[in-house]
């Protein structure tokens, strides 16, 4: 009798432990990181268009992560290069990774990140240096394939993004003979709100 009671007690304990473990696993599941496409973000005007990855929108507050002005992209970390730039109030930085957007699943080492400085941006300006190539014959600005930007956000989270187009409507082949609206970014991004090191 005592043996049967002991066996039943142990069985109940095992079932209880397994069910608690299963519940804990469900509660600790990290949601999948979603890829979001932003179309025609307008950076064609005077001044900078500030974007928040966590809010997935253009913002006017200091809680921005990257800001765009024509072909210049800055991060919310470091110092200003010109007075026209918004104040850097965050701890933002950028790392440029070679690969496809989907293949970038791990954050680069901390040493691979840079903040904006007085003489150079974290995402360098100029054809072939940062995110684009400029064709002097056609005058077309094309994103460099295989460039993914991992961003440390203003509040210490992480996002990655790739630029798909610099032209309104994201034409596959912009026609230099037609009037094409420039400074309209289309890009994919993924934001990691958790304290993991993966996308």
From TrEMBL:
Coiled coil: none annotated. Transmembrane segments: none annotated. The keyword Signal applies. Pfam families: HmuY (PF14064). It comes from Flavobacterium chungangense. InterPro entries: HmuY. Residues 1-23 form the signal peptide. This is HmuY protein. It comes from the Bacteria. Keywords: Signal.
């Amino acid at each position: 009798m005592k043996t049967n009671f002991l066996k039943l007690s142990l069985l109940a304990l095992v079932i209880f432990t397994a069910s608690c473990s299963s519940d804990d696993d469900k509660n600790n599941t990290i949601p999948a990181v979603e890829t979001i496409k932003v179309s025609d973000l307008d950076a064609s005007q005077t001044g900078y268009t500030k974007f928040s990855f966590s809010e997935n929108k253009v913002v006017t507050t200091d809680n921005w992560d990257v800001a765009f002005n024509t072909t210049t992209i800055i991060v919310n970390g470091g110092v200003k290069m010109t007075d026209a730039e918004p104040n850097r109030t965050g701890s933002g930085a950028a790392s440029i990774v070679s690969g496809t957007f989907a293949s970038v699943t791990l954050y680069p080492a901390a040493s691979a990140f840079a903040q904006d400085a007085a003489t150079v941006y974290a995402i360098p300006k100029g054809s072939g240096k940062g995110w684009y190539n400029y064709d002097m014959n056609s005058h077309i600005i094309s994103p460099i394939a295989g460039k993914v930007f991992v961003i440390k956000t203003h509040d210490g989270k992480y996002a990655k993004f790739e630029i798909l187009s610099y032209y309104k409507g994201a034409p596959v082949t912009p026609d230099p003979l037609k009037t094409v609206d420039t400074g309209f970014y289309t890009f994919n991004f993924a934001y990691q709100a958790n304290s993991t090191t993966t996308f």
